[in-house]
Amino acid sequence: MSALFQLEKLFVAYHGVDAVRGVSLSAPRGAIVSVIGANGAGKSTMLNAAMGILPARGQIIFDGAPIHGLSVEERFFKGIALVAEKRELFASLPVEDNLALGRFRFRREGRAAAHAALDEVYDLFPRLRERRRQLAGTLSGGERQMLAMGRALMGKPRLLMLDEPSLGLAPLIVREIFRIVVSLRERGVSILLVEQNARAALQISDYGYVLENGRVSLEGPSAALQEDARVAATYLGFGAHRGDDGDDDADGDDDAAT
Amino acid sequence: MDLSIFLILLQDGVINGAIYALLGLSLVLVFTVTRVIFIPQGEFVSFGALTLALLERGQTPATIWLLLALGVVSAVAQVWQGRRTLSARRVLAIAGTDLALPAAVAAVTMLLAPMKPPVAVQIALTLAIITPMGPYIYRMAFQPLAEASTLVLLIAAIGVHLALTGLGLVFFGAEGSRTEPFSSAMFEIGSLLVSGQSLWIMGVTAALVAALGAFFELTLTGKALRATAVNRLGARLVGIAPSMSSAIAFTLAGFIGALSGVLVSPLTTIYYDTGFLIGLKGFVAAIIAGLASYPIAGAAAILVGVVEALASFWASSFKEVIVFLIIIPVLLWRTWGAPVVEEDDH
Fold first, then answer.
1. Helices first, then strands: H and E counts in chain A
2. Beta bridge partners of B256
3. B271 φψ region: left (φ > 0), alpha (ψ -120 to 50), beta (else)
4. Letter string b/e over residues A53-91, b meaning 16 or more CB atoms within 10 A of that residue's CB
5. Are A54 and A44 in contact, with CB atoms under 8 Å apart?
6. Helices assigned H by DSSP within B62-194
7. Is B239 in Cβ contact with A105 (below 8 Å)?
8. Which residues pair with A28 in a beta bridge?
9. A36, A118, A192, B227: which has the fewest Cβ within 10 Å?
10. Can you give the residue ranges of the ABC transporter domain (chain A) (predicted)?
11. Whole domain around residue A85: which residue ranges?
């Protein structure tokens, strides 16, 4: 498996501080790669730089070509989609319009293709079909996450970057979302998953990175990381540090770009 | 004041209000999509009115040279900004919209103007000359500042306004013009005389409002503009470039401005700088709507028109003062009440 997406020695300054300091990371085709780390470790900053929202130094390579100079939209046209931590929905538009706008790049392909794409997303998230006429701003947290993912999928991305999809959601909904993430891998979408919920992320991913203070402190196959004593202690809630970082879903994640 | 005078004033107010409504809607549109408070909106009104007046006299309006110049500047600005990522197809598209289109419009105008074509053709030419100036001015003055604060964009807008007013003096001279009404018919409704021209204004305004409504509710491009307005980052994440939405918003603004000029020119004498005052009244309506709500802007514009008509009857020398005073209670209410428009993100 060759890498679809690579970061090489990425540095990102955010609010005048280097929030990401020399991160190198690789996402193979058809795999789920997770990046775990505590609040403020630089995870969201890294994703926002990868999408072009924040300026960065270092190499960003997609499908063998550097994409460093491309705008957010141009990266999206290449096949990279970001589901941002704040979901960034169109609150005053109905669910179905949000989804339709996700296909804006294919707007010349006609009605039939648009309907087929909508149906595909509705099959993946039946809840969105029920809510299709409702304004996006009135959805529950889980539905908003589903809509953000569905909207990203409407653009047929090859790499889907998910920023804290479990943030603020009930455990049952988190399980459903992660089940869908796994099903996306089966459809050939490569996934870069950034999560504080390390246990859930490592369970579904193939490979994992641990981010600490803007640096990769540990990486390896997810199964191996789950066994690692340090990861278990710090992020999975076993051992001495239980509850200090891992599942603490505080919303004040200040490494998120707004 | 008896009822018949009141009705005449009301009619006057509503007709002027319809024009202000068009401009107010345009200002709300441009601000929500691009964060630009489009002060030069009024210049499009004078340019539209005066271009039509020149065509009516069988003269070739000098605005075609401005159109060509703006097209060239816009093309250069776009090629320069995209110099690293530009594809050949994109360069061709830019050449088409910014060079070939204005050249064609200018050629047709030079050909037809001396022949004094029918009014409909004159109006079509006027709209074709003035409308593209909207997106060209965006590419030239505002796109390079896309990441700047609202205040910087406002200062740029004032700069564009001053430049266009000066150019207006160059092109049209200090004298005012008035065009022939589209219709000289008069209708009697009870004691009220209604001119055909005022029916034209009401009809065109209603049709344009309906068309804008359909554009925003029914078309994907219209929804993309709304998406940019409600969540700029969200729009970028699905590949809706703010520069595309902004160019469309400025095209609509150019069209609405030029059309307002065409509609208003038979009602009153338009000078090179009259548009600013007309635009400012649309701006009062847009401010009452918090630069956010289309229906409130439309209703407020009618109110501005009626207040202006009544003020010109009772205290004609204070007419403008009274109209602009409306803004003060609204600003106080917006300051102390709940803020409607969020300052942009940083």
1. 10, 10
2. none
3. beta
4. bbebebebbbbeeebbebbbbebbeebbbbbbbbbbbbb
5. no
6. 63-81, 88-95, 101-112, 119-130, 133-137, 150-172
7. yes
8. A3
9. A118
10. 5-238
11. 3-90+158-235
**Inter-chain touch B237–A74, beta carbons under 8 Å:** no
**Calpha distance A130→A56 (Å, rounded):** 41
Nearest chain A residue to B224 by CA: give it.
A101
Say which residues have a Cβ less than 8 Å from residue B278's Cβ, sequence separation at least 6. B19, B20, B23, B42, B45, B260, B264
Residue A56 has pLDDT above 60, yes or no: yes
pLDDT of residue B245: 96
Rg (CA), chain B: 20
Residue that is written with structure tokens 């969540």 in the block: B231
List the domain boundaries for chain B: 3-175+196-336
* Closest residue of chain B to A81, computed from CA coordinates: B237
Classify residue A131: in a domain, yes or no.
no
Residue A52: which region, alpha, beta or left (left: phi > 0; alpha: psi -120 to 50)?
A: left
Rounded to 5 degrees, what are φ and ψ at B119? Answer: -55, -40
Q: How many domains does chain A have?
A: 1
Asked if B220 lies within 8 A of A100 by C-beta distance, the reply is yes
> What is the length of chain A?
258
Yes or no, beta carbons of B240 and A101 under 8 Å apart? yes
CATH of the domain at A207: 3.40.50.300
Helix/strand/coil for A80: strand
B319 at interface of A, judged by CB pairs closer than 8 A: no
Q: Return d(Cα B291, Cα B54) in angstroms, integer.
A: 34
Helices B220-230/B242-264 angle, 10° precision: 110
Q: Do B238 and A152 touch (CB under 8 A)?
A: yes
- Does the residue A23 lie in any domain? yes
- Which of B238, B245, B248, B344 to mutate: most A Cβ within 10 Å? B238
Task: Give the mean model confidence (pLDDT) for residues B183-203.
Answer: 84
Q: Does B345 touch chain A (CB under 8 A)?
A: yes
Specify the pTM: 0.89
pLDDT of residue B340: 54
Which of B288, B227, B243, B276 is CA-nearest to residue B36? B243
Distance in angstroms (rounded) separating the CA atoms of residues B55 and B310? 34
Q: B339 falls in which pLDDT band (50, 70, 90)?
A: low
Q: For all residues of chain B together, what is the average pLDDT? A: 92
Q: Are A155 and B234 in contact (CB < 8 Å)?
A: no
